[in-house]
Design a protein that fits this description.
27% helix, alpha+beta, two-stranded antiparallel sheet
Length: 95
């Protein structure tokens, strides 16, 4: 959240020290551009600064999500439910 820049940097240091790579995401709506994929601890710290301090994504970066980098394909699975029955839609995938 805003004002927690130093805490985010400390988290990045701890995760990279543990051997984990990260992605940095602006939590709000950023027109599909709010995910940064750093390749080093220094790039991850720069990404935190870019989003939280420099406000590269405006209000969308008021809250930042730092997650472990996962490699592979991704898909979305959704369902409609009426409280008793759920009907799955076909999986969707961005390319």
């Amino acid at each position: 959240k805003a004002g927690e820049h130093e805490a985010a940097l400390a988290y990045v240091d701890a995760e990279y020290a543990a051997g984990r790579q990260l992605v940095v995401k602006a939590s709000g709506l950023a027109a599909g551009k709010g995910v940064l994929m750093p390749t080093s601890v220094d790039e991850a710290k720069a990404a935190i600064k870019e989003v939280m301090v420099d406000k590269a994504f405006g209000a969308a970066g008021d809250e930042v999500v730092v997650e472990q980098l996962l490699i592979g394909e991704e898909c979305s699975c959704m369902a409609f439910a009426d409280g008793k029955i759920a009907s799955m839609m076909a999986p969707a995938q961005d390319h």
